Every structure is written in C-alpha cells, then in structure tokens.
Sequence to fold (708 residues):
Amino acid sequence: MTWLRWIAIAALTPFAAMAEEDLPDIPSTLIADRIEIEDSGRIIAEGNIEVFANGTRLQAQGVIFDENDGLTIIGPIYISENDGAFELIADQASLSADLQRGILTSAQLVLNQELQVAASEIHTLDGRYTQLYKTVASSCRICGTETPFWQIRAKRIIHDDEEKQLYFEDAQLRIMGVPVFYSPRLRLPDPSVQRATGFLTPTLRFSNTLDTMAVVPYFIAIGDHKDLTITPYLSTSGNQALTLRYRQAFRTGTIEANAGAAMATQTTNADASFANISGAFALPQDFGLSFYFEEISDNGTLVEYGLPNKTRTNNSIAISRARPTEIISADLSYGEPLQVTATTTTDTVPSYIADAEYKKRLYPGGLGGQLDLGFSARSFYRPLTTPDDGRDVTRLSAMGEWSNTWAFGPGVVATLKGRATADAYQVNDDSSLNGNISRTDGIVGVELRWPLAKTGRKASHLIEPVMQLVWSPDTLTAVPNEDSLKVSFDEGNLFSFSRFPGTDAHERGLRANLGLGWTRYDPAGWSLNLTTGAVIREKDLGQFTGTSGLSGLNSDWVVAAQYSSGFGLDLVSRTIFDDSFVFDSSEIRLAYDRNKLNLSSGYIWLEANASESRPADVSEWTMDATYNFRRHWYASWNWQYDITSDRANEAGIGLSYRTECADIDLSVARKYSSANVTTPTTSVQLTFNLVGFGASNVDGANRRQCGG
Fold:
C-alpha cells in the first residue's frame, strides 16, 4: 500500500459508508471545524482537520471527496505513520477516484526518521510505485536554508513499495554542496530494509608496501536467512586480494564461512590464503554445539592486507551444557604454530587435545555444607614419534571436594575444606615416564576471616585479616605436566589450595596463606581497596621458579590496589616483591572516561623466565585515547612502547567526524616488526559511511541540533 493510499484511508475511513467497496475496515476518528455531506454525495471537511486511523495521523485544512473527481486534500498537510517510521509534509494532494493514482505538490518525506526526500511533485501509480520529481535526498538534519553535509540530487526518484528500493535518475552526490560523484542510474535500499544486495561501505588504504588500496565489499542477500559478501582488495601496486564471507541462519543456530587469497607483497615472498568455518547450534536437552575450523598458508602476507593476524591455527568442536548444579562439556581441538621458534616447539604445544568433563554440586543433608564432584578426561597427542619431542599423554581424573562455613565469636568466619583426587595416566614417547601411571592425592585446609567494619560521617572502612592453613603430602607420584606450565601469583589465587592453573601439577606441603584487605568508602563517591599477602611454607619443595614470586620458604609479597574516583577515573595496580624490595613483576592500569575524554593506559614489567618462554625482561607501556575536541569531531591515539628494547611496537592516530548522517574515519598506523612481519609498515585508512541507506544511525549524542 503506497503512502498516498494511506492518506486516502486516513481521510475517508470516517465516511466508509460512502465508499465501503474501496476502503478496508479500519477504525478511525475525524476532528474538523466543519463537515458537510452534500446531496450528490460530495464530502467536504474544513478547518483544523485531524484524522486518526490505524496508527496513521493526518492533519490538514481541508478534505474534499467526490466519487467522480477523486480526493483533494488542502494543506499544509502533515501525515505520520507507525510512530514516525513515515512522515510527510505537502502543500496539496489529489488522488483519483480509485485511489491508485495521485499527485502531491511541494512535498517532503521522512523515512524511518533517517532519510529525508524533498520533491516538487510526488506521483503514485498502480498502488506500488511512487515517483518523486526534482528531488533532494539526505539523512542529515536540515536547519532552515543551510546546506546539508551530504545530499543526493536527482531528476527523478522512483520508490518501489513492494521491493523497498529507491531508483535514482541523473543522481549527483554532493558533499557540503560540492558535487563529488555522478551516476545516470543509481539504486539504493530504503531505510526500512535491513539486508539488501549491493555495495557496502568501502575503505581506502595507503601503505608503504601496498601503495593505494581500495577495499570494496559487495553484499548479496540470498533469501531471508543467508548471504554472501565478496570483498576485493585492489591495490595500485598490482598486489590484489579477495575474500568471501558466507553466513546462514537456521532454526537452531548459525554458521559462517570465510575464505581469502592474497598476492605476495614487496616484503613477503609467497602468496597466501586462508579459510575458516564456524558455527553454533542449540541441541536438545539444553546442550549447545560450537565449532571452528581454519587453515592459513602464510600469515605474514595476510597481515599486510589487514587480514587474519595469528601465530597459531586453532580448530575445535565442542558440546556443552550448563545448569545451576551441573556442567557437562566435551571438546576436541587441533592447532599448530605458523612460525616454529624456540618457544613454540612441539613438546610444549600439542597438536591434538581432547577434553571431557562432568561436574556436579550437591548439598548433603546429614553432612551439611557443599559437595562438588568432578570427572574429567584429557588427551594430548603429537604426530612426532621422537622421544620427548613427540610425547603423547592421556589422563583420567576424579575429584571430590567438600566445604562448610561457620560464624562464631566476635564475627569470625571459619571455613573447613577438603579435597580428594585420583588420576590415571598413559604416557608414550617419553624417555622418563613411559607407560601407565596412577596417583591419588588429598588436601585439607581451614580458613579464618575476621571482617571488621566501621561507619562514620567522613568514611566507611572495612578491614579483613585472613589466615588459611593448608596441608597436602610433601611427595606425589611424578606425572607429565601438560596444563600447568605457567604459574601466576596475584590477589586472585592468594587463598587457593593450589596456585597451579591445571590438574597435572599440585602444590605440595604444609603452608599458610596470609593476607589483609582494607577498603575505604568515602561519602564523596570515591573508594580505595588494598590487598596484601604472602605464603609461608614449612619446607621449600622447589616447585616454583624464582621469578614466579612463590619460590622459597616464604613467598614474595603481593600488593594490589584498586581506586575508583566516582567521576570517571579508575586505577588498578599489582606488584610482587621480596623482603628486600626486589621486584618480580609490576602492573598498573589506568582508565579515565568523563565528558569528552576517554583514556586508558597500562604498564607491565615481568622478569625474564626461560621456563615460561620469556628469555628477556618484559617492560611495556600502552596507551589508547579518544578526545571529543569539538562537537562531531573525535581525535584518537594509540601507542605501544617496548621499554626494554627502547622502541615502539605500534603507534597510530585517527580523526573522526560523526553526525546523524555521516561517519568518516581517517587513521594512520605504524606497525613495527613482529612475529609475523619483519618489515615495519605504515598505513593510512579512510572510511566514509553515509547513514540513511541501510546503515544504522550513529549515537544520538552526535545528532546535530538546529540553533545551537
């Protein structure tokens, strides 16, 4: 149903008895200063007319309907439909008696509160097509006689109401009033269309390795539930690339497939290609299935085109179910490093990993407390048969953990916890641990907390000392360590039974985990939290490296701080040091988000540790910032600096212009050598997005205001 037919319905439905064969049965209300029905059947309504019909509102000064001459509406005319999805303003409207043809003069349309089309005349034809003559179309908000940021001027626009398409004749795109593009024919979807075949927003890039490159994606809608995007990368240097993306939605899930190929660049010696497919589906009984498979030939070449940047391929398929007291999961994964180095040898990076796990939580009535049961299986497989380098491991494990908590005395909270585990291993291609290995282990711990709170007019304080005493045997049957190679020490695992992240390694011996936390809440809105603690052992069993912060009879001190200002500034810091204030690691992160400035910065320092594939100290500073320096204008900056090497790893600046009708981004990035690229690259990227034709509107904060 065309827009003008809606006008007729809104205007005539109150008189449906006079032309009931033409109008649907739509409840409506008519308000006017005067209504007259002549003996000939001619209907005249005059003065401050308002008609409400099925979500459509019409305002006009006069309505005249004659069965022979048709319908005439005297303006100014204003009609709105579907809560602003369609708005029309015109001086006058005339429709034929059958309501299939009509003319509006000096009309302006607003579609989906985004696209405005002004025309000297609007004609309708056959209840489907609307023709607009001498038109100006823009999604920019127009204030008075000012020139919109962008506009499309055309001799004629035809709107196909059935296909939801706009066809332009002699179309001219103007930016700030300056013609920049002309096309004798142009087709665009109307703003109500979410998916339509056609070109997507192009990107223009400039780099020292690929010269000027245009990225021009073309979207093909293959029905309601699947689509294909073809993206050529066209470079003036002669280097080209092409990517494909296919997506399909099913009743219970989705899949997405990507593929691409790229020619060798000035700094790479080989053509490259990649392909991947991923999906997620809901299965019966609350189970979910997900998968991801990929293949990459030469990642260094792909990186220069801005395509997948990876150091390792990952292929996996998983099924899982999570319920309040139960978790079931199983997955199979395969991967391999794209660049084999001293830190990516096959003995530390398995090719195939299979996992299965079942966890159940119970609340036993007689025993009280909480009982967690777990069963798991894991297998690591490496295709190599060389001893040690090709070690294969399969493990079956069972675990039971019980805990209960009591409060007594002056607010002391006590927790008793015990855990028992059993593991069975089969090991191949390992010169020292070949064969079948089994082990059992137990651990018991008691924890005391004494939270002390004080509330005053100036501030509220919470101090909580914590002491945890944990015992497990000093010795345990040796097994291959596949999942606990890297150990971290922080406030998050200060009170853990074991600081090892996986199952293969268990923390041993009698030890006390001691800590103190203090939090201050200020009425002004800011808060500060400090946590510090350490681990004291009966014996040094040599389980941890010196740089982990956990070695020796007494561990190093971990100190963590969190500050929230209440006005957009947040600070997080963590430091590990020994009794002599020799630091093992230090990390600080700062974030500020207020008014026009968004800033995040971080610094990290880690001491060299060969067992954690860190042959040299790491000292790095990163910073990202965005500043709205003027309405609609944003400047951005990112920087990553390697302090140890005294050089930048990456740097970039950007400038953006954002309004309700346009989103323009210009960025310059400099990437220095990395694992995938040995030659530094500099690239410039320009993206120009006109909002209003199948593009979502930008944040309302950037909507321009008239008169200010």
